[in-house]
Amino acid sequence: MLRNLRIKSFQPEEEYIYLTYSLKNDKKEESRVLLENYKNLLQKALDWLWDRTRIERKEVKKGKKVITKVKIKLPKKKEVYKTLRDELEKINVLASHYADKTISDAYSILRSWKRRAEKGQASLRKPRLKKVYVRVKSTLRKVKGESVRITIRPYEYITFSWSHKWFSRRVKGLELGEPIIKEDIVYLPFRYKLPWFTPIDFLAIDSNLYTLDAYDGEKFVTFSLKELYSIKFGMELKRGRIQRFASKHGRKGKELLRKYSHRERNRVLDYVHKFVNKLLEMYPITMFAVEKLNKQEMFRDANDSLSKKISRTVWRSIHRVLKYKAPLYGSFVKEVNPYLTSKSCPRCGWVSRKVGRTFRCEKCGLTLDRQLNASLNIYLKMCGFPHIRETPRVWVGVTPLKGRRRMSGALPRDSGEAQRLRIDIKYHEIL
């Protein structure tokens, strides 16, 4: 018992993030041999495991409805590993380590399919392989200076170099992870050791259609996302016209549609990255709290007009990029359950059934904008206060607000504008 409680070291554990950069694949012929043979191995592994996968259906009564629940059992990896590896080696023309990697990738595909199928988000048919990529194990690659040599077969290699590339200075001294090879592109992940920081600030963010409303422990801050929304709206109208054109012009229309879809994705990601960079510069060494949102649940409760507006949002992209880049600034990101955050009183815990633009507590009389109220409740959840229940006697324990809020007027737009990027910030005083 005491042995398990013994502290190994007072130093914090080392943490790493991966900075990934891409190269154009200038060895397409050699790569095609690797990709085609690896696809055959992966398909063989999937077929072999699928024959040993059991799908059980069970009918459960829920009120007056009868719901069919699905339970999927995959073969245990430890029990079938050796047998499956021997089967793959019979058709393997690549290095032997690719057989081990194939088994891991096949299980990864099936576990992802199982998770979605049991939720009813995927069919119960065998997953199909579309475009295959190869993640090269550390035993199959060797780094020499600013190039990496990858083994295909014994004494047969392909080499990719990042010398004189735009990111070569950034990755100098960093350790290369497992390269990912695709038909047209090669991804190189470099491992970066994070310095240890203790957060000195906190920021709770409530994500809305046109704004991000935040609370930092002293004041509320509103970040405008109207420009990002207008980018999505304008590209959606353009995509509709291109889809009508594509339906009549076959291959030419599909290529045009793919081109504009790629352009829209790039413009949105460009804005998101610049927005997150500016946010992290304003709040370094900060603990960020964001909502763990589920768009599918929102669509069920929304009408057609609201569903279209929700589909134009990119909350998860912002949260994902923030989580990826925050450690570079000594910051951390924590996901919080958004349940009842806009309907609960942060002072007394009362839960209101009807909430309009303004939240009014029927118990203690607190009046506050609904979105700002949500950010305050997210802040309380981040700080570890108990989950708010529908009980009038629950006391949260914090009384930072009294009365109603007053808008103090918008500050001038931030001077750090880059390529039409604008972040509108408004501060609110509490009376």
Explained architecture:
The protein has 431 residues and is α+β, with helices and mostly antiparallel strands. Helices cover 37% and strands 24% of the residues. It has nine helices and 19 strands. It has helices at 2-5, 28-50, 77-91, 97-118, 226-282, 295-301, 304-311, 315-325, 370-382, and strands at 16-24, 54-62, 65-73, 134-135, 141-144, 147-153, 156-161, 175-176, 180-181, 185-193, 201-207, 211-215, 220-224, 286-291, 332-336, 358-360, 367-369, 405-410, 425-430. The strands form five sheets. It has a seven-stranded mixed beta sheet with strand order 15-14-11-12-13-19-18. Strands 1, 4, 8, 9 and 10 form a five-stranded antiparallel beta sheet that branches. A three-stranded antiparallel beta sheet has the order 5-6-7. Strand 5 and strand 6 (147-153) form a beta hairpin. The longest helix has 57 residues, at 226-282. The chain is globular and about 75 Å long. 20% of the residues are buried. Residues 387-425 and 427-431 have low confidence and may be disordered.
Task: Give the gist of this structure.
The protein is α+β, with helices and mostly antiparallel strands and 431 residues long.
What is the element string, with H for helices and E for strands? HEHEEHHEEEEEEEEEEHEHHHEEEHEE
End-to-end C-alpha gap:
54 Å
Number of strands: 19
How many helices does DSSP assign?
A: 9
Q: Biggest sheet, open or closed, and with what strands and sense?
A: 7 strands, mixed
- Helical fraction equals 25-40%
Rounded average pLDDT: 80
Neighbour order of strands in the largest sheet: 15-14-11-12-13-19-18
The poorly predicted ranges are 387-425, 427-431
Which of globular, elongated, flat, extended, rod-shaped describes the shape? globular
Category from helices, strands and their pairing? alpha+beta
Strand content: 15-25%
Estimated radius of gyration: 26 Å
Domain Probable transposase IS891/IS1136/IS1341: 198-300
Domain Cas12f1-like TNB: 315-378
Family: In the C-terminal section; belongs to the transposase 35 family.
Protein name: Transposase
